[in-house]
Amino acid sequence: MAILVTGGAGYIGSHTVSELLDHGEEVIVLDNLEKGHREAVLAQTFIHGDVRDRELLDQIFRRYDVEAVVHFAAYSLVGDSMKDPLAYYDNNVAAAQILLTKMIEHGVKRIVFSSTAATYGEPRQIPIQETDATEPTNAYGETKLAIEKMMKWCEQAYGLRFISLRYFNAAGAHPDGHIGEDHDPETHLIPIVLQVALGQREALSIFGDDYPTEDGTCIRDYVHVMDLAQAHRLALEKLRETGKSGIYNLGSGTGFSVKQVVERAREITGHPIPTRVAPHRPGDPAVLIASSQKAREELGWRPQFEDLDTIITTAWAWHRSHPNGYRKEEMRG
Ligand code: UFG
Questions:
Q1: For residues 96 and 317, what is the distance between their CA atoms, to the nearest angstrom?
Q2: Where's the NAD-dependent epimerase/dehydratase domain (predicted)?
Q3: 288 in contact with ligand 1, CB cutoff 6 A
């Protein structure tokens, strides 16, 4: 029996594929490589194609004995989603609708879904719990929430079983150093900070230093990508064992400010990492911290790379060995 991983060439997808392979799973990756990287795919079976391609999905489900789907393939940039929400509805919601339709048609009834803290919007309490209100403040979060709801109705109507994992701030890289984070354009804090340390950027723009936090910069809950990968594997096991659907936050339960991240990165890289203060980025809440109690209790999630130094150290190892991301290999190839 195989696991179909859509978006398995992307950042979190590729690390999850690595984790699944390490635990003896048979993995098939489907990715259109719009954002993902062929070099990041460790699975033997790679299918270059789009989730919205109904015929391709028919072929995959006919040819392989797919037991469950882990669905990453999606757009995930908050800013872009505000400029072009319809592209997000197409690539995220419409694609999920097609994928779920084909899964049901072919009798595949388990899915682990890549969701986000952006489903909550501005938090009403910290730490955020799964039972808190979901009022996304951007189209990206809205599309992920729409898919969660679609899966809920599919459970009632067709017996689909789903686990939705709401990530907070994914960061870090595989400790082996062979896969890591490579976005173009890069918008995330830790890789940008490390690009400054590598001399690829002059300075970090801190998006606001007058938030109601201790040092005035935004606080986020950084969670290591390998710990996210572990959670996907555990979610699959949970679906197999109990057939029980659920929604789970994945974060460390600890928040760090932008300035604290920069401070730790200075220490780890030995680089001064200059900063300058820039205007607020629209839609940035001051503080986002997850309660991951439920994932720990129900999935048995045990993060292994929890502290910020480990996150930055593994990311730094990846950035130093791959200063151009996967492009170096692409050029060689
Ligand atoms: N930041 C800067 N300068 C930068 C980049 C980021 O100051 O150049 C700040 C942001 O303002 C924010 C923090 O660093 O306060 C983290 O920003 P990221 O862009 O790394 O991450 P976000 O918190 O904006 O978003 C991430 C994911 C989203 C997800 C969200 C949920 O990218 O998909 O976490 O917490 F929805």
A1: 35
A2: 3-251
A3: yes
For residues 184, 185, 191, 192, the Cα torsion angle rounded to the nearest 10 degrees is 150
Q: What percent of the chain has pLDDT over 90?
A: 95
**pLDDT tier at 176, thresholds 50, 70, 90:** very high
pLDDT at residue 333 is higher than 50: no
Quote the CA–CA distance of 275 and 201 in Å, as a whole number.
Answer: 11
Q: Which residues contact 101 (CB under 8 A, 6 or more apart)?
A: 54
Place of tokens 């659920």: 246
Tell me the average pLDDT across 256-265: 98
CATH topology of domain 2-171+222-250: Rossmann fold (3.40.50)
* pTM score: 0.97
- CATH number given to 189-220+253-332: 3.90.25.10
Q: In whole angstroms, give the CA distance from residue 216 to residue 208.
A: 7
Q: Which of 258, 259, 287, 291 to probe ligand 1 with, by most ligand atoms within 8 A of CB?
A: 258
Range(s) within the chain of domains with CATH label 3.90.25.10: 189-220+253-332
CB 31 within 8 Å of CB 8: yes
Mutate to test the pocket of ligand 1, among 12, 188, 209 (most ligand atoms within 8 A of CB): 188
Instruction: Note the ipTM here.
Output: 0.96
Decide if pLDDT at 332 tops 60: no
Angstrom CA distances, 43 to 17, 21, 38, 56, 253, stand at 7, 7, 10, 19, 32
The whole-number average pLDDT for the span 306-310 is 95
Task: Enter the DSSP assignment of 281.
Answer: P
Ligand 1 neighbourhood includes 311 CB (under 6 angstroms): no
